[in-house]
Amino acid sequence: MPINSNLIPIPMNDFQTWVHAKQQRTEHALESTLPTPEIAPHILHEAMRYAVMGGGKRIRALLAYASAEFCGVPAEQADNAASAVELIHAYSLVHDDLPCMDDDDLRRGKPSCHKRFDEATALLVGDALQSLAFQIISQPIEGIEPDIQLKMVHLLATASGSRGMAGGQAIDLASIGKNLNQTELEHMHIHKTGALIRASALLGVYCSNQTNSQKIHAVDQFAQSIGLAFQVVDDILDNEADTKTLGKTAGKDAESNKPTYVTILGIVRAKELASELFNHAIEPLVQYGSESDRLIHLAKFITQRNF
Q1: Helix (H) or strand (E) holding 274
Q2: 5-12 — which CB contacts under 8 Å span 24+ positions?
Q3: Considering all CA atoms of the chain, what is the largest pairwise distance in Å, rounded to the nearest integer?
Q4: Can you tell me the distance from the alpha carbon of 51 to that of 94, in angstroms, rounded to the nearest whole number?
Q5: Contact of 5 with 303, CB cutoff 8 Å
Q6: How confident is the model over 123-181, as pLDDT tens digits?
Q7: Which domains can be identified in the chain, with CATH numbers?
Q8: What pTM does this model have?
Q9: Alpha-carbon distance 232 to 262, whole Å?
Q10: Distance of alpha carbon 114 from the chain centroid
Q11: Theoretical Cys-Cys bridge with 121: which of 32, 117, 150, 178, CB 3.0 to 4.6 Å?
């Protein structure tokens, strides 16, 4: 039976406190990881920090922490995974905003990296952030076995490459002006958006040294659905929210003649789909009771943000 997400109460004070604490933890971890502008090459390091710090909801880091918590992992054991997925995400945004990609001048409420600096610097920022992500997730992490870390590196690499996020962006660029059906659009976003979101959640589980358990399968099913739901909601917000709320140019996809869930399904059906995907996401988790509360509340936070 479908679950009405409105009937799942979020203890707001507790959840908001948790979100704020993990967001602050992520900021601190990233601050400690990124080179300072005093270190040469100065402009590159300044631009890397500009692209990463002080913006975004840190959804991918939150997923890593929530799934780690689901498996009884202390937050410090998941810090590297949480930071790595945020660095990969930041690199993808810097490259997506370039004129040769989505050509956007605004990101997280401030000028895009290539507008604040220049295109060549922005390109190098993306390259350097990607390398830094793999640097921190491959270095020894107390409490995680080396063979598990190797699986984590493999997972993140796959999610970031041509069979994941980069491939999804290539499909996206090739789809401009085309009339995709829902299956084709879903295929694109499983790669472009969903792959890194899935990796974020699974990396948190891997931090518990598990790679084959009921819990990891539950998180995998959860993450696949919530990754698609995230994109559906993004498309809805691109249609309904303003630039100030989004922190990026509102209506950019429609202006660029890109296929979205809203253009294919309409706004009402897109919202219904977001709710259905929420149900699919939490279905494998409800059997765990309060152990899965963070993931379920995070799923509701993702699917109901700002609408």
Answers
A1: helix 267-282
A2: 5/275, 5/278, 5/279, 5/300, 5/303, 5/304, 8/282, 8/296, 8/297, 8/300, 10/297, 10/300, 10/301
A3: 58
A4: 7
A5: yes
A6: 999 999 999 999 999 999 999 999 999 999 999 999 999 999 999 999 999 998 888 99
A7: 7-303 (1.10.600.10)
A8: 0.92
A9: 8
A10: 21
A11: 117
